[in-house]
Write a structure and sequence with these properties.
Elements (H helix, E strand, L loop, with lengths): L7 H25 L4 H22 L5 H7 L5 H5 L2 E3 L5 E4 L20 H12 L5 H4 L3 H7 L4 E3 L9 E3 H4 L4 H14 L1 H13 L21 H12 L10 E5 L4 E5 L8 H6 L9
Antiparallel strand pairs: 1-2, 3-4, 5-6
Length: 280
């Protein structure tokens, strides 16, 4: 927020539109709250009066001079919607907000006919499964009808928490299977279905040929790079303690210290490397 640099006349226009904006929002809030027609009409009449007073003093909201005074305010285009304009920017009439309900109050159904509708509604409105109050069915009956579509989350808590199949059978399914196996040993009637479903979505284990480990990858522990060098270049045992590989997380740089002690190694200078490296 900042203080706008307006002339005296533009400041008066801006103040008028602030009053118009507040009245407009009162009409919107009354509709969202589900107020009766009488109360809504009271707000609409106030909006009409404030709008007519503003127009008589400063012209239409969409006029260029009013836009210059207030178009940097986030509510300016809401006020523009109070006026219906033609394709040439000429005023036609007032919008429906002055006389009609333009917003319907959101009403969440408190009862549905089947468990599938209940599942969709509970997830879309609450982002969780809460269907007993929507169907009137017992938890046991719901679980039977939605077998394979919802899964009980393994937990030591007293209150059962259920997730949809899309959510439960995605993500780190390996870890989820490990947890489900533990709980299935204690309460198989509750969690055997979890284990069966998770086993079907387990990814195929990677083999050694599927893993591409590039030299210098930061996830490789320096010790393994060091062992690789010793084996590939057949580093003599008596100098291994001198040649060490390290990685700095601060600079993201690899370093091999003491490598000059094995400078005469043909494998390092010719077979797998070059003696010219020093001069590059």
């Amino acid at each position: 927020m900042y203080t706008p640099d307006l002339s005296i006349s533009d400041m008066a226009r801006a103040k008028g539109m602030v009053e118009l904006r507040d009245s407009c929002r009162s009409v919107i809030d009354a509709q969202i709250a589900g107020d009766d027609d009488e109360k809504l009409h009271t707000f609409q009449n106030q909006l009409n009066d404030i709008y007519d007073c503003f127009v008589s003093s400063y012209g239409r909201v969409n006029d260029a001079v009013n836009a210059r005074a207030f178009n940097e305010d986030s509510s300016y285009y809401l006020l523009c919607a109070l006026e219906n304009m033609d394709e040439n920017g000429r005023f036609i009439d007032k919008s429906d907000m002055f006389t009609k309900r333009t917003i319907r109050q959101s009403k969440i159904p408190n009862y549905v006919n089947n468990v599938q509708e209940a599942l969709l509604l509970s997830v879309s409105e609450k982002a969780r499964v809460y269907m007993s109050s929507l169907t009137g069915m017992t938890e046991k009956k719901l679980i039977q009808n939605l077998k394979g579509e919802i899964f009980r989350l393994p937990s030591d808590g007293e209150a059962a928490v259920y997730l949809t199949a899309d959510e439960y059978l995605s993500g780190n399914v390996r870890e989820k299977l490990e947890i489900a196996l533990i709980y299935a040993e204690q309460e198989p009637q509750l969690y055997e279905s979890n284990v069966e479903a998770l086993e079907k979505v387990q990814p195929v284990p990677l083999t050694a040929t599927d893993i591409d480990a590039r030299l210098g990858a930061i996830w490789i522990v320096p010790k393994y790079i060091q062992d690789f060098i010793y084996e590939l270049l057949q580093t003599p045992d008596y100098i291994k303690h001198i040649i060490e590989v390290s990685y700095s997380q601060v600079t993201s740089m690899w370093n091999i210290s003491g490598k000059s002690v094995d400078s005469g190694n043909v494998l390092a200078n010719t077979t797998y490397g070059t003696s010219e490296y020093k001069r590059l």
